[in-house]
Amino acid sequence: MRSVLRSTLVIFVVFALAACESGGLGTPEKGPYAPGVDHRKDAVDGLVVGDRLMESGEHELALKSYIRAAGDHGMTPDVLISLGSANLALGRLGQAETLLRRALEADETRSDAWNNLGVILLEKGAVSEAVQIFRKAYALDNGDSDMIRDNLRLALAKLENPAYDDAQANEYKLVRRGRSSYLIRQKP
User: Fold this and answer.
1) What is the pTM of this model?
2) Distance between CA atoms of 54 and 61, rounded to whole angstroms?
3) Is the pLDDT at 45 greater than 70, yes or no?
4) Which of 4, 34, 80, 171 makes a 20 to 30 Å CA pair with 110?
């Protein structure tokens, strides 16, 4: 019993002395460990994080960020378009189409959503419907977007010549909220 008590006392003294040193038992302020989370500050908006992840090609992580944004903002047209764009980039055409159509039911004036829906329709082979969708997107954008114009040209070329298979024919431009765009390449 005495040896157990003595061992416990030694362990206690060692830990007490370790806690008194500058390093202590906690993690060092500057060291190999990541800093902790500061719960006093506001988190970065999930839509912004998702857009950055999409831009860097991390589509699965972007989708997760957009899902978190849906919890914060609700299923707004911005969130639906972002979710649809991430699903499109991941090749989940059915899910992307459903989300983009829901976004357009809520706000029909979004040229980015119309463009991305047109990309889905081109991927699915519904060229004539894609042409109409791209025309609507181009009109809503007042012809300002080169990406939408390029997609419309591609769809028109495929409509006129169904065997059209240029190397550039497999490159669709996905437009996101804001100023950036994504290039979606169809797999050979």
Assistant:
1) 0.69
2) 8
3) yes
4) 171
